[in-house]
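Milestone 3.1: sequence recovery, worked example.
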């Protein structure tokens, strides 16, 4: 059974930074692409960033140059470094394993709230 635990969210002022972590209990973590999704109130959940099993990355235009995704396969952990945060980044952030980037997620964590005050 896949278990995903996100952490690192919080309240930050616009222009600030946060680092999210996602600890995955997946036997073959390194074989999965991983992604960070977010869902703002009243909006659809969207893929923000993704990283393939080989280290290739995807960034939504809205976060390019500000967010960086990384993974530590030895620790079964996914990270999201978020810099220059904006009010529109406010959302619940979820990590998810995928067969490949932009394929349907295999599972979801409980999410971590990120709130950016302007």
């Amino acid at each position: 059974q896949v278990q995903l635990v996100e952490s690192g969210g919080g309240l930050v002022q616009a222009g600030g930074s946060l680092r999210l972590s996602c600890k995955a209990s997946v036997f073959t973590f390194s074989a999965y692409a991983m992604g960070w999704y977010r869902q703002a109130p009243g909006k659809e959940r969207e893929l923000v960033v993704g990283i393939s099993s080989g280290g290739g990355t995807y960034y939504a235009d809205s976060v390019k140059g500000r967010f960086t995704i990384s993974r530590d396969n030895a620790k079964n952990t996914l990270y999201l470094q978020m810099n220059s945060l904006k009010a529109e980044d406010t959302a619940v952030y979820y990590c998810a394993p995928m067969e490949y980037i932009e394929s349907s997620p295999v599972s979801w964590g409980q999410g971590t709230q990120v709130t950016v005050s302007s």
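The mean pLDDT is 95. The chain has no helices and ten strands.
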